[in-house]
Design goal:
Layout: E1 6-9, H1 14-27, E2 32-36, E3 47-49, H2 55-65, E4 69-72, H3 78-81, H4 85-106, E5 110-116, H5 140-159, E6 162-168, E7 170-172, H6 185-194, E8 199-201, E9 209-213, H7 214-226, E10 238-239, E11 243-245, H8 247-255, E12 263-265, H9 270-275, H10 284-290, H11 298-316
Parallel strand pairs: 1-2, 1-4, 2-3, 4-5, 5-6, 6-10, 7-9, 8-12
Antiparallel strand pairs: 9-11
Helix pairs in contact: 1-7, 2-4, 4-5, 6-8, 6-11
The protein binds 2-amino-3-ketobutyric acid (AKB).
Length: 317
């Protein structure tokens, strides 16, 4: 029987929903309490409504369930965040401070805080961006993640709170829909292809970005959290890489399955955000410290995405 009781905040989101299932498989269904600001059907385990800005309610849930670890996934992403910068800052930073303060007061053993490649901006090498490149984010989402990384380190150094963090690239999965990100096109494009529709991409054809398949992103998260504390040398956040590709490259990999699939390009405001981000990431620190190794490249991911989405849509139709 697991001694851990885990709280997932933002459990209905793109990563949160898949992570909750993986944690339930590893720790037992009743040892993982899913929370989100809205109720959705389909949670086969304990679920509580929680607004991340309500510190008192968060503390009450943590005490009532005897929570020992927190995975804090709730945040407004890069593209959506630009529509209301001050509100994005309030939600992303306010939520994080509540998690850190409640965790400190309740004697939580570990906290997971997701950062992002959005922490990078001007004056970095865009290819194989190093772990310690300068952080000059251009979006409010990126600013909140860069600040969150420093606060993670602060709570570790000042209070001994074992906060661990990954800089996720764009995450691509068939299980859940992304919401409000600049990398969302790389999920949407598969849905259009499998449904037999052509796709109009909101980024230009040669905009390469770092990406990762959901299976790898979830495994990285669990491996980081299970690694011995002395192996965690980066107390801000770890660069994490899976693969890198441009819209035309993902289109080509899909056309290997559906030769008549066509993609056109109509870049919008998200192009500027993508242009400020790395094209690829150097994740050697993660590989050295806790033996990170991705399993999926673009071709393997495309095979699995198409296979899984075909199954999903044939059930729905
Ligand atoms: C986004 O596009 O905002 C996210 C991210 C890279 O953090 N997917």
């Amino acid at each position: 029987m697991s001694k851990e009781k885990i709280l997932v905040i933002g459990a209905n989101g793109q990563i949160g929903s898949v992570l909750t299932e993986a944690l339930r498989a590893a720790f037992g269904t009743n040892n993982v309490i899913a929370t989100d600001i809205r109720q959705v059907d389909g949670h086969d385990g304990p679920f509580e409504l929680l607004n991340v800005l309500d510190r008192q309610a968060m503390g009450e849930i943590i005490n009532r369930h005897g929570i020992t670890q927190i995975y804090h996934l709730a945040a407004i992403l890069s593209a959506k965040g630009e529509q209301n910068p001050l509100q994005t800052w309030d939600i992303n930073m306010g939520g994080l401070f509540n998690v850190f303060e409640v965790a400190r007061e309740s004697g939580i053993s570990k906290v997971f805080f997701p950062s992002s490649i959005a922490v990078f901006g001007a004056d970095i090498p865009r290819q194989m961006t190093p772990q310690n490149a300068i952080l000059k984010p251009t979006t409010v989402y990126g600013m909140s993640k860069a600040s969150g990384e420093l606060w993670s380190q602060y709570y570790f150094q000042k209070y001994g709170l074992d906060v661990r963090s990954l800089r996720y690239p764009g995450v691509i999965g068939w299980q859940s829909d992304p919401g409000g990100g600049t990398t969302d096109y790389a999920v949407d494009i598969y849905h259009y292809a499998v449904k037999g529709e052509n796709y109009t991409c909101f980024l230009s054809e040669n905009t390469a970005l770092p990406m990762i398949y959901m299976a790898d992103a979830i495994r990285a998260t669990l491996e980081l959290m299970e690694a011995p504390a002395q192996n965690i040398k980066e107390r801000t956040s770890y660069n994490l890489a899976g693969m890198s590709f441009s819209p035309s490259e993902i289109a080509e990999s899909i056309q290997a399955h559906f030769p008549s699939f066509e993609v056109s390009y109509a870049p919008d405001f998200r192009q500027k955000i993508a242009d400020s981000w790395p094209e690829s990431i150097d994740d050697n620190a993660a590989r050295n410290d806790w033996h990170w190794q991705p399993n999926y490249d673009l071709a393997r991911m495309t095979n699995d995405m198409i296979f899984q989405l075909q199954k999903k849509y044939s059930v729905l139709i």
